[in-house]
Amino acid sequence: MIIVLKNGTTQEDINKISGWLSRYDVEVSPIVGTQTTILGVVGDTSSVDTNSVYLSEYVDKIIKVQEPYKKANRKFHPENTIVNIGGVEIGGKKLVVMAGPCSVEGEEQIIDIARHIKAAGASIIRGGAWKPRSSPYSFQGLKAEGLELLNLAKAETGLPIVTEITNPMHVEKFIGKVDCFQVGARNMQNFELLLELGKARIPVLLKRGFSNTLEEFLMSAEYILSGGNENVILCERGIRTNETYTRNTLDISAVPALKKLSHLPVIIDPSHACGMSWMVESLSMAAIAAGADGLMIEVHNDPQNALSDGAQSLTYDMFDGTMKKLKALAKVVEREL
Ligand code: PEP
Ligand code: MN
């Protein structure tokens, strides 16, 4: 960290700031110029409270040269992390497709979809039981019953389950019923939830909030990792921009950026990114070409009558066609599907 001091700072001020910084485990080296004095601060600067009023009295600006996340940082963990979701590895050579409806709606629906996506080459079933909807009047999910139905689909097909958890108090009731927790975009900074999931030993699929930076995203991953749960998968699902044509804007650059910054597996959810089923195939292809480790795709047996997100849900035929193209593309990028 480099602290640039205000003009006219005296040696006494430098001593005061150095003294203040000594509460942290860092070393301070002042460089006194004719115009400007800077302090080079080395060591673990992640806990230094740069917003401190005391510092701001003397400080012109602070330049951070170290990322605030440690456990998520590739610098401290150069090898790719491979996360195992109920026997399915994600982050290695094999691409992983998670697919299923936005919401679990009934036994027949979820079992039929599970069978279909498995036959097409998907390896994990997704489906929301607790649905955090923008409107309180929209379908809120089947809740505990939804979890049971997902488990029936798993018993039928063997596909591991990923489903969203919205409440830190629900962790206990999810354990034993899910293979991977999903943290939705709206809960990316629900720190109480992240802390609880850090204590669990089940993988967590963390979605990027639609208004969050990559650094904030990685800091949320850090919450889970620092609790001792090392099984985190990052999911880009579109962010808010000035563009209104699509539901969100898929930040494809997040894939190479996150891969460079972090060792964690990265997947893309093209469905929530664009909001339109016809565009999902293109974005899926772009994601794999950009280096994503997998995809989360919404698929429905009857999109027109879906209780949530029907417009972006693929029909079985569309999903089959997309999987075929993805299998061909996987070879080109030296992956397997
Ligand atoms: C979902 O996966 O159904 C969902 C609600 O996603 P997001 O949190 O990305 O909006
Ligand atoms: Mn959805």
Q: Which SSEs are present, and which pair or pack?
A:
Elements: E1 2-5, H1 11-21, E2 26-32, E3 37-43, H2 53-56, E4 59-63, E5 83-85, E6 88-90, E7 96-100, H3 107-120, E8 124-126, H4 144-157, E9 161-164, H5 171-174, E10 180-183, H6 191-199, E11 204-207, H7 214-226, E12 232-236, H8 254-261, E13 266-268, H9 270-274, H10 277-289, E14 294-298, H11 316-332
Parallel strand pairs: 7-8, 7-14, 8-9, 9-10, 10-11, 11-12, 12-13, 13-14
Antiparallel strand pairs: 1-3, 1-4, 2-3, 5-6
Helix pairs in contact: 3-4, 3-11, 6-7, 10-11
The protein binds phosphoenolpyruvate and manganese (II) ion.
Describe the protein's architecture and organization.
By secondary structure, the protein is α/β, with parallel strands linked by helices. Helices cover 33% and strands 18% of the residues. The protein is built from 11 helices and 14 strands. It has an 8-stranded parallel beta barrel, surrounded by 5 helices. The chain has a 4-stranded antiparallel beta sheet with strand order 2-3-1-4, with helices on one face. Strand 7 (96-100), helix 3 (107-120) and strand 8 (124-126) form a beta-alpha-beta unit. The model has no long low-confidence stretch (mean pLDDT 95). The structure holds phosphoenolpyruvate and manganese (II) ion (MN).
The main sheet comes to: 8 strands, parallel, barrel
List low-confidence stretches.
none
Order of strands, main sheet, comes to 7-8-9-10-11-12-13-14
Bound molecules: phosphoenolpyruvate, manganese (II) ion
Oligomeric form: single chain
Provide a count of the helices.
Answer: 11
Proportion in helices: 25-40%
**Beta-strand content bin:** 15-25%
Q: Supply the helix-strand structural class.
A: alpha/beta
Secondary-structure element string: EHEEHEEEEHEHEHEHEHEHEHHEH
Radius of gyration (Å): 23 Å
